[in-house]
Amino acid sequence: VRRATVTPNRVARTETRRAVNFDEPEIAPPPPTPTSTTHSVFACPTCGASTRRFSYDSGACSVRCNAGHTVDVAKEGHVNLLAAQSQRGGRKKSATGDTAAMVAARGRFLDNGHYLNAGEAVAGGVVRYLMGVLGGKGDGDADADTEVSPPEFDTGATSYENTSQNTSTQKPSARAKRLAANVAKSQVVKQRNARARSVTQSAIDLELLKRKAPVVVDFGCGDGWWLERIVDWLNQSSTHANCLVNFAGLDASPAASKAASRRLQGNAQVAVGDAQRDLPFATASVDVGLSVFAPRNVEELSRVLKPNGIVVVASPNETHLNELREMSTKGQLDGSTFLKAATNKKAKVTEQMTKDGWFQEVECVEVTQVMRLTKNDVADILGMGPSAFHAKNETEKEKENENENENERNDDSVFGAGGANRVDVTNAFVIQTFRRKQPASSVVPLSDSE
């Protein structure tokens, strides 16, 4: 009898066949089951459909549409929709946003309250509009409906025991005890199920209210300071203190979006996105748009704004920070340079918003205030605005002459030799409100007989 010769190569091939079974395809693990879902104001950056926010046991969250397109939520709470738009546009989309240093400088300056006059003017106008919207719907005081507590249930075990004691003076048998225990257990289960149904119904009702609630979006939100003013104003309103409003912020800078998420702490949904391109919102889904010192896409704003919705645009007036520019020209700011102010800004904004007939200007407010600024405040102004980009190109030249001219700059500096002096600087803002006109298709033409 001939025996097959077992060679090392044959053993290796046999083991390979055992390890790789081509008849059994690899099965991917099932996706994790979300523990809760909430309303999301953003549209899917890939297909444009509505999205929902999913939370999981691990603490992770994601924004997903019905088609399965998913964007992960960062640990700070914001989502990067700009990166996800690469699939929709066929190429990676990027935008020039503020750096982390610029965002930090803006946060320090705004937190010192130097622009509080403009912040209150913007927030006051938005809240007044929201009060009209909520009052018109008839559910302005919706806080009583949104917080539904589980109803109280009477326990049946006590009533059963009292009944048995009243109707019988004999000691209950073992069978009667088992029946009483079963009845008590059944009552507990019924109460637990009823409470669960009540909580589920409350969550459903709250979700429906969120879907119908007004939507306020800050296009170019920065670190969220301006949106925070609106949230504070609405919470201080005695009539609509706890009404439901969906706040959202959009900024092209990941650093700014991260800072906005930290500042707003769940009071708003924040995303990385470009306000000059396709806006990640459904058509006619936004009640109030906000644009403060930010570029804007008027055509996209007209698409996402509801009919009669408003856009509030805040821009600098011609006299904004004029004192600093004069000091910079005279070399009194320790070498800092400020850009020239844009002229006729108000007229340019009006022309941009109204030239295509989508918006109508309904209000224009000018606010001004004299600020007492320290040397650090002036440095933050320089570091948070467009001058910061130009200052980078001159950094190397300034470093070469820094040691030679340091004493001369300190002698001429308005802050004094120790830098402890303060300077008076004027802030001047133009706050314009534009209303979205009714689309022509919604107007029913009159017949010839009428």
In short:
Helix content is 43%, strand content 19%. The chain is built from 16 helices and 12 strands.
Give an overview of the whole structure.
- The chain has 450 residues and is α/β, with parallel strands linked by helices.
- It is built from 16 helices and twelve strands.
- It has helices at 8-19, 81-84, 86-89, 100-111, 116-137, 143-146, 156-167, 174-212, 225-236, 254-264, 298-304, 322-329, 345-354, 375-384, 387-393, 395-412; strands spanning 36-43, 50-55, 61-65, 70-72, 79-80, 215-219, 246-251, 269-272, 286-292, 305-316, 359-373, 423-436.
- Helix 4 crosses helix 14.
- The longest helix is centred in the middle third of the chain and has 39 residues, at 174-212.
- The N and C termini lie far apart (110 Å).
Keywords:
450 residues; alpha/beta; eight-stranded mixed beta sheet; 16 helices; disordered C terminus
What is the topological layout?
Elements: H1 8-19, E1 36-43, E2 50-55, E3 61-65, E4 70-72, E5 79-80, H2 81-84, H3 86-89, H4 100-111, H5 116-137, H6 143-146, H7 156-167, H8 174-212, E6 215-219, H9 225-236, E7 246-251, H10 254-264, E8 269-272, E9 286-292, H11 298-304, E10 305-316, H12 322-329, H13 345-354, E11 359-373, H14 375-384, H15 387-393, H16 395-412, E12 423-436
Parallel strand pairs: 5-8, 6-7, 6-9, 7-8, 9-10
Antiparallel strand pairs: 1-2, 2-3, 3-4, 10-12, 11-12
Helix pairs in contact: 4-14, 5-9, 7-8
